[in-house]
Amino acid sequence: MTQAHDQRLPVLTPAVQLGLLEYLAPDDPPPPGSFVHVPLGPRTVLGVVWDRAGLEAKPVAAEKLRPIKQVLDIPPLPIQTLRFAEWVAGYYLSAPGAVLKMAMSVREALEASPTMTLYAPARPTPKSLRLTPQRQAVLAALEHRPWQTAADAASAAGVSTGVVQGLAKAGGLASRIASVDASYAPPDLDSQNIILSEAQKVAADALWHAKAEGKPLLLDGVTGAGKTEVYFDLLARQLKAQGGQALVLLPEIALTTQWLSRFEKRFGVPPVLWHSGLGIAERRRAWRAILTGQAKVVVGARSALFLPYRDLSLIIVDEEHDPAFKQEDGINYNARDMAVVRANLSEAPVLLASATPSLETVTNAQSGRYVRVDLRERHNDAEMPDITLVDLREAALPSQQWLSSDMRSAVRETIESGHQALLFLNRRGYAPITLCRSCGERIECPQCSAWLVEHRLVGRLQCHHCGFSMPTPKHCPACGAEDSLVPCGPGVERLAEETAEAFPDARLLQVTSDTVGNPHRAADMVGAIESGDVDIIIGTQLVSKGYHFERLTFVGVPDADMGLGGGDLRAAERTFQQMTQVAGRAGRGAAPGRVLLQSYMPDHAVMQALAKGERDAFLDAEAEARVRRGLPPFGRLAAVILSAKKQPDLNDYARELALQAPQMPGVTVLGPAPAPMALLRGRHRVRFLLKAERSVYVPQVMREWVSRVPQSRAVRLSVDIDPYSFL
Ligand code: ADP
Ligand code: ZN
C-alpha cells in the first residue's frame, strides 16, 4: 500500500474544478512546487507538483495512473506559496487551483527566456528627424529613463507602440537586444539621502525593537508625519540584517508617482513594480525575479501578495485601512488580513501603516495582539490643519448649488494668497440622478438597481456598476416629454461648473478616474499641481490620499455626509477615515492648512470628532457600538450572495438554502433578503448574512452550510467572508 502511495505524484492545476490530481511519479520525482506538464484526457495541461501536507487528491486506481509529460526548467514554487494557496482557499471557500492561478499569473514567465528590444534616444539626434508631439513625448520619456521596451516607453509617453517603432525606424532611437529577465539593480540600503527627524528616529527604533516580539506592527502616525520614510528605514534595516525580499502593498499603485520618486531618492533605484497596468515583458521579468529571489523590494497592488517570493523577510501594508485592499469579485480576499497570514508563513515581520487605522487593527493593538508605534507630529514642524464645520441647515444654499458663502470666501482667500484649494466630492460625473420634471421618472440602468449617472463631458448617462451607457436623451424615456429632464444632485463635473462660475479667473483641474485614469496622466496631474499651474483642484477619492502638495492649504468638502447613508456597518468609520485623509492634504508645507466640512448633521459623532480632532474618543465610541451589536471586529460576519437570470430560480434556491441554514449557538442567519442591488448586470440577487461570535470559525460553518444544497446551473452562489460591501 505505502509502495503504491509513494509512486503517486499529486499535481494541482490552475483549473478551478479539478482539485488535486494524481500521476505516476517518475523514478526521480520532482520536488513539490515544480512546474509540470501533465496529460489530462486528450489534452496537456500545466500544473504544480504538490505535497501531501494540505490537500487530498481524488484517488485514482493504480492501473489508471498516467506519467507526467515534462518537468519545466524553472525553479519550483517556494513551499510557502503552496501553503498560502491552501490557506487562502480554505479561509475564503475557494478552489486551491484558483489561488494557485493568482500565484502563476504570467504564463509567459514559464517559457524559456526570450529577448526584448530596448530603446533610448539616438545620439546625436538625426537632423532630418520629423518631431511630432507624440514623438517628442516618447523622447522625453526615454530621456527620463533610457532603455525601455517599446511597450513601456509607449505607455510612459501615452502613445501607441507604433509611434515608438516609427521613431526608431526614422533613426530617432537607438536600440539594443536584452534578455527579458535582465536582473534588477539592488537597492542601496546604506544611502544617507534621507535623514530621519528625531521623532522619526524614535519611531523607527521602536519598530525595529518591537519586531523581536514576533507580532504584527502598527505604525500609527498623523497625515504628513513622514511614515513612509520611517518604514523605509525598517525595510533597509531588515534587508541588511536578514537579506531576502520585502513587499510593500499600496492601494491604487498606478497613481503613486510621488511615492516612487521618494523610493528612488531613498534607495537609489526604482522598486520592482507589480500592478495591472504593467506590460507583459515587465510582468514576466518581475515574476521571474521574485521567484528566484533576485527582486529585493516589490511594490504592488493587492495581487502582489500572491507572487512566488523565494525568501520573504518583510511585508508592509501602507494605508492599511483602505477599502481597496478588499477584492470584491472572484475570490473575495482582504489583502491586509492575508498579508498578516502570508508574513506568518514566512516567519517575517509585517507592518501596517495608517493615519486612520481600521477599527480591526486598533482593536488588535489595544488587546496586545499587535504592537503599536505612534508618530503624533507632522514632519518639518508642519501643523495639523484646522477643521471647521459649516452647518448646511443654516447656510441657505440656492437650489442646485453646493458652495456655501463660507466655502467661497475660504477658496477666494486661499487663491488670492497664492495657495491652492482642493474641493473634494467623491462622485464622478455631472449628476447622480436624472429626473423628468413632467412625470417624475428617474432614469435607471436597465441591468442594475441603480440610477444612471450623467457624464456631461462625454454627453452620456452611465451605470457605475455594470458599465452600461447611453447618449443623454432629449426626451423622457417614460413619458416622452421634451426637454423635461433635469439633473439632480452634484457630481464632480457639476461642482467644477459651479466653481468656474464663482471663480472665473481661477485655473481649475478635475481629478477623477475619468480624467486621470492612467499613470501617465496622473503624473501630468501631479506635475501641474506641483509647479503651481493649478489654483483649484476638484476631485474624487483619487486625489484624497497619499499626495503631498506643498502649496495646498485649503480643503473643502461640500457634502461631508455623503458616506453616512446606507446600511454599511463601517459608514461612520469610513467617513471619518476619508475626511481625515482628505483634510490631511492641507497645510503639509510651510503655510498652515484649513478645512471646511459642509454637513446637514454637524452634531453627528463623526463630524464632532473631526472638528475636535478626537480620533481616539470616536474609535472608542464606535467600538462600544460594535460590541453592543456583536459586529466586527467583536463578532464575525459572512455573506452569501445568490444571483440568477430568473427570479423563480433564485427564490427556489434561496428557500432551500434557508432551510439548511446552520443552527448552532453563537450563530445567527439573516435573510434571504433582496440585495440593495437587487438587480446587477441583468441578474437578480438575494443575500444572506451570517453573524457569529468571535470564537466561531466561520469558514467551516459556511462550507458545511453551502455544501448541504446541491449546486444549480441557474444560480450563482458567492460567499463573502468578512464582507466590506453590503450591496
Ligand atoms: P505621511 O505618509 O505620514 O502622511 P509622508 O510620508 O507623506 O507623510 O511625509 C510627508 C512629507 O515629508 C513627504 O513629502 C516626505 O517626503 C517628507 N519627509 C518626511 N520625512 C522626511 C525626512 N526625514 N527627510 C526629508 N523629507 C521627509
Ligand atoms: Zn448597470
Topology:
Blueprint: H1 2-6, E1 8-12, E2 20-24, E3 35-40, E4 43-49, E5 70-71, H2 79-92, H3 96-103, E6 115-121, H4 133-144, E7 148-149, H5 150-157, H6 161-169, E8 173-179, H7 198-210, E9 217-221, H8 227-242, E10 245-249, H9 257-267, E11 272-274, H10 280-292, E12 297-300, E13 312-318, H11 335-345, E14 350-354, H12 359-366, E15 371-375, E16 386-391, H13 392-395, H14 405-416, E17 420-424, E18 433-436, E19 453-455, E20 460-462, E21 469-471, E22 485-488, H15 492-502, E23 508-511, H16 519-530, E24 536-539, E25 552-557, H17 571-583, E26 594-599, H18 605-612, H19 615-629, E27 635-644, H20 647-659, E28 667-680, E29 683-693, H21 698-707, E30 715-721
Parallel strand pairs: 9-14, 9-15, 10-12, 10-13, 11-12, 13-14, 16-26, 17-24, 17-25, 23-24, 25-26
Antiparallel strand pairs: 1-2, 1-4, 3-4, 3-5, 6-7, 6-8, 18-22, 19-20, 20-21, 27-29, 27-30, 28-29
Helix pairs in contact: 2-3, 2-11, 4-5, 5-6, 7-8, 17-18
The protein binds adenosine-5'-diphosphate (ADP) and zinc ion.
